[in-house]
Design a protein that fits this description.
Elements: E1 2-6, H1 15-27, E2 32-37, H2 39-43, E3 52-56, H3 67-73, H4 78-87, E4 93-96, H5 100-111, E5 121-126, E6 134-137, H6 147-163, E7 172-175, H7 186-197, E8 202-206, E9 218-220, H8 223-248, H9 252-260, H10 262-271, E10 280-283, E11 289-291, H11 298-313, H12 316-337
Parallel strand pairs: 1-2, 1-4, 2-3, 4-11, 6-9, 7-8, 7-9
Antiparallel strand pairs: 5-6, 5-10, 10-11
Helix pairs in contact: 1-11, 3-5, 4-5, 6-7, 6-12
């Protein structure tokens, strides 16, 4: 198993990336890494390792760079060359904590879509109260979507939940403004019908307020809505932890209470910690492309590597390709009948 990794992407790169890679190599004995970036900067944190190949790159795609233009113009950037390794077949999967837009644009330009996939989707696992988590997509790859796009998101999410998360029969939910069948706009009503007619374990509409209660294993929506929900969940979790900290630091008594509850608070923080769930995967591309959080620490990079490794080992891309082809054929037959 060989992964291509952008060593220069992210707020804490290259240190967090290198440290995450070293953690992953300890865990996965069959893993080999092609680490892309400036060799001198990587060398500051890199110990000698026979399963790491450093590929020197002179350029870095920065957070403020134009996504598509930077991929085309910065040909010797760590992200561009990482994506090329996947497209050329010298790596099985890749990941970066760098510019999200550039990674999505580069994924389309360099790696390419699976035949039959109308639009790739950005997906990640979000926390739930019981600690199980749920997969949500699309989280911003496409602001607009058609009903058939959301059906494909559900199919791809179902495969990921089975192969990577080990859920035998994933529950598929459709994000909506109410749980009733007739709720929503034209898009959600049409998607509801498509999911109901599919072979998926569709549990119906789910509301945003219930997402953290583990109402579904996979939740599908359009990218515009999904991105807003994602940012709302992240912001609420961050604000809640900040308010708890302020409350516990208010007086001597509350500080004593905080010490008594230290282990419980640590568990609560762990439930909300994105680093345990890996990164966001770009579903629908010709190989696994993982976007780690921009503020990823070493643990988060390790989790994203674990995610990419599992996707590659279980041939998630190949299964998606077969499933999408079968679904498109079935949809075509239905249209002919009508």
């Amino acid at each position: 198993m060989k992964l291509a990794i952008d060593g220069m992407g992210g707020d804490h790169a290259p240190r967090s990336v290198v440290e995450g890679v070293l953690l992953a190599l300890e865990e996965f004995p069959n893993l080999e890494v092609k680490l892309y970036g400036h060799k001198d900067k990587l060398a500051q944190f890199l110990t000698s390792h026979n399963r790491i190949e450093v590929v020197h790159c002179e350029e870095v795609i920065e957070g403020e760079d134009d996504p598509a233009r930077s991929i085309r113009r910065k040909k010797d950037s760590s992200m561009t060359r990482m994506l090329e390794a996947v497209s050329e077949g010298t790596a099985d999967a890749c990941l970066s904590a760098g510019n999200t837009g550039a990674l999505m644009a580069g994924g389309l330009l360099k790696v390419g879509r699976i035949e039959g996939v109308a639009r790739p989707a950005l997906a990640t696992t979000l926390p739930t109260i019981d600690g199980q988590g749920f997969l949500m997509l699309d989280l911003g790859a496409n602001a607009d979507a058609k009903p058939e796009h959301l059906l494909q998101y559900a199919l791809m999410g179902n495969i990921y939940a089975k192969k990577v998360r080990g859920i035998e029969k994933p529950r598929i939910g459709l994000l909506n403004i109410g749980s009733e069948e007739k709720k929503g706009n034209d898009l959600t009503k049409s998607v509801f019908s498509l999911l109901q007619e599919s072979d998926l374990n569709f549990v119906g509409n789910v509301e945003a307020r219930d997402l953290l209660d583990n109402v579904a294993d996979v939740v599908v929506t359009d990218g515009f809505t999904g991105n807003m929900v994602l940012k709302s969940i992240e912001g609420t979790a961050s604000a809640m932890m900040a308010m708890l900290k302020e409350a516990f630091m208010a007086s001597g008594k509350t500080k004593i209470g905080a010490l008594l509850m230290k282990s419980e608070l640590k568990k609560l923080k762990g439930k909300l910690d994105y680093s345990e769930h890996g990164g966001a995967a770009l579903f629908g591309l010709g190989a696994p492309v993982i976007k780690a959080h921009g503020s990823s620490n070493a643990r988060a990079i390790y989790s994203a590597i674990r995610q990419a490794t599992i996707m590659a080992e279980h041939n998630v891309t190949a299964v998606i390709k077969t499933t999408i082809a079968e679904s498109n054929s079935l949809q075509g037959e239905k249209k002919e009948e009508n």
